[in-house]
Amino acid sequence: MTKVVIIGGGPGGYEAALVAAQLGADVTVVDRDGIGGACVLTDCVPSKSLIATSTRTTYVREADILGINIPSVHEDKAEVEVDISQVNPRIKDLAQAQSEDTRKRLVKEGVKVVEGEARLVDPHIVAVGEQRLRADVVLLATGAHPRELPTAKPDGERILTWRHLYDLEELPERLIVVGSGVTGAEFASAYQSLGSDVSLVSSRERVMPTQDADAAEVLEEVFMRRGMTVLSQTRAESVRRTDDGVVVTLSDGRTVEGSHCLMTVGMIPNTEGLGLEEAGVRLAQGGFVEVDRVSRTTVPGVYAAGDCTGVNMLASVAAMQGRIAMWHALGEAVSPLKLSTVASTVFTHPELAAVGASEDDVRSGRIDGRSVTLPLNTNPRAKMNEVKDGFVKLICRQHTGIVLGGVIVGPRASELILAVSVAVQQRLTVDDLAHTFAVYPSLSGSVTEAARSLMLASPE
User: Fold this and answer.
1) Is 253 assigned to a binding site?
2) Could you say which DSSP state residue 403 is in?
3) 26, 178, 205, 414 — which has fewest CB within 10 A?
4) Closest Cα to residue 219, out of 342, 352, 92, 327?
């Protein structure tokens, strides 16, 4: 029986463990912080739980648009009270429950769980304290942690990383968010909706510079319309505590005062102290583990998955890397990881979801394609719900009409993107989508309508 040892119990680790157990391997997961890893306990699950609360808050604030008169809100839309001392315990309880559910599933499938710090002694021996685990296959799935600036050291009270947020007993009155990537944008949006006065520090010309430009523009407009201050093209040089808050000094000389500062300036892989380089595992710039498209490292029998590899830091990608590693290691047929089919979402309000090729790929000539964008404010279901912000964008190959990608900005974009994701994965054409029934009225109807627009515009 093949012995598999997995270091790390996050999505890359526990999904790999389930696959390996299914294939009849003897599987051990060595976990330090709790099954589910940072994704379940401190990052993805807690943040999306917080965002769910913030989204409901926005709906309550804007209920009068639909003719619903809530007395405490009607006279002053700002008067929606959010008790963070109730919100945060609920979030942590949900995360712990998800972790425990996952642990029970592993045990039920015959996976052994060992608590402790792991280290590679050699490619076939993993040390956990004094214990030595022999392995035919090792998977590294150790994750990553928030990057810290030497001039803005988090203290867990006023200067925070997102992993400190759920210990707060009061809602930040004036929150300064440093970093306008996905994480920064999500928390800025959430806390603005919860009632904080939010300032977002962005080093680039626009927020979320790696996302679709049209989508980022819509979201920045929404942020500012709801009262957020966006400070563009400047960086935080330092953050210091004051008696009752923080002062952030910016690279352009300005200072911003707030009650709290949230630092979202990137991730550092958890690869130190694992004995990787001594075992021959090559690390890339920044300490990330080098892997190929089937999750192999530079050492035979040693694989890696998830944030420690730096390959598209999403839970879904980590999980797929882990599964691919086990399928490959245990002799199953496997398709290499294809990043062009990965769907991602920014859980702002409204949400931003994307998959596949971008409009920039078309404009730059990297792909021979064409696109169409339909605003959601023309969609009947959107009108019923007073949704005015957002769109559906679909991209296809110029002559064949094969769907190459798409972007959706709107409510539940994370759910709506699945249709486009399936089309990209299965190489469907706009004709295939156009001839697919969509419920009327529905937001998903805009996906099939976009496909019809591209079908009609196809060259003869």
Assistant:
1) no
2) E
3) 205
4) 352
The total of structural domains in the chain comes to 3
Residue with tokens 């003897």: 26
Domain membership flag for residue 152: no
185 is in an annotated binding site: yes
Q: How far is CA 333 from the centre of its chain?
A: 29
Same domain, 303 and 212: no
Q: Do the annotations mark residue 156 as ligand-binding? A: no
Determine the Cα–Cα distance for residues 276 and 268; give it in Å rounded to an integer.
16
Residue 154 lies in a domain: no
C-alpha closest to that of 357 among 459, 212, 209: 212
The answer to whether the CB of 101 falls within 8 A of the CB of 237 is no
**184 among annotated binding-site residues:** yes
- Give the amino acid at 49: S
266 is known to lie in a ligand binding site:
yes
**Do residue 249 and residue 275 come from a single domain?**
no
Same domain? For 128 and 261 the reply is no
* First-residue to last-residue Cα distance in the chain: 59
Task: Look up residue 301 and give its two tokens.
Answer: 């029998």
CA triplet 326, 327, 333: central angle to 5 degrees?
A: 165
Spans in the chain with pLDDT lower than 50: 77-78, 457-460
Same domain, 259 and 210: yes
Q: What is the pTM of this model?
A: 0.95
161 labelled as ligand-binding? no
Annotated ligand binding at 214? The verdict is no
Q: Which residue, chain included where needed, has tokens 């089309």? A: 423
Residue with structure tokens 């130190």? Answer: 272
Residue 320 and residue 242 share a domain: no
Q: What are phi and psi of 448, to 5 degrees?
A: -70, -30
What residues make up the domain containing 428?
350-454
Contacts 24+ apart (CB under 8 A), 61-66: 61/193, 62/386, 65/386, 66/385, 66/386
CA angle at residue 310 from 223 to 280, to 5 degrees? 165
Taking the CB of residue 288, how many other CB atoms lie within 10 A of it? Answer: 19
Instruction: Tell me if 212 is assigned to a ligand binding site.
Output: no
- 81 and 29, same structural domain? yes
What does the pLDDT look like over 108-164, one tens digit per residue? 999 999 999 999 999 999 999 999 999 999 999 999 999 999 999 999 999 999 999
